[in-house]
Amino acid sequence: YRKKITKAADKNFVSGLVNLLRIHLSTMLNMVDIEASNELFKKPVSEDCNPVQIAELVREAWGIPNGPLQNLTHYVEKAGIIIIECPFGTNTIDGTSLNLNNLPPVIFLNNSLPPDRYRFTLAHELGHIIMHSVPHEFMEDEADTFASSLLMPSDDFIRSVIATSTGKVTISQLIKLKPYWKMAISAMMRKLLDTNRISDNEYRGLHIALSKLKLNRNEPQPFPKEKPALFKQILEACLGDYRFAKSKAKDLLNIYGDDFTLLYGAFLPEPKLKIVSRS
Description:
The chain is 51% helix and 5% strand. It is mainly α. A three-stranded mixed β-sheet has the order 1-3-2, covered by helices on one side. Strand 2 (95-98) and strand 3 (106-110) form a beta hairpin.
């Protein structure tokens, strides 16, 4: 889970939802095959290989060019990882993932995430899939470091900051860089701190400035949200379009009207009627 402080009821709801989707997905994957063109490898963190280096290995293996990663979803799905956006019913949980022997890796993301948090959470969960097989104390920090390094390679990011700087780093400068890196301003601030480009005092000052602008909880989103495609393709292959999906889901997945709409309505929406005037 991306959040450390979460109500037990919220965790239980999300766990139940994820488990139900896992059961359905297992059934549907008996009917379809997934072909992956990107290698998905395991690389645990060690003394010889830290999360930053592992992120570099992923970029190299997947042929990601230098600079901003334009569409992370595209690369993740090409590795055969299934991304499912879910109605978590809470904003305290951003995402979670499953990596079971009988299924391809699956990343579940809160469907209410804004574009920047969607990308960072997706990268964070990808880090867990690649680096972690056994939970441990530092895994969340390692996944955050991996995500930051995958989406913002330090050298490229710092060069862009220097190229747009007129002195001290400011919030307005980071706002201008946001559509280029497709990252939260707060994540860029943290990157500057972690790479020693700003001091602890400067970091706190930027947070205060962000708060005064009322952007700490509602950052601008100057780029569209990425859209997963693989799970929708699986649903369409197994259930067909909306006209037939509900009845097929009843037989195949043992779910009914409202439950089907809650789980899969966003992927297989009911077509809207068009009013056609006669001349």
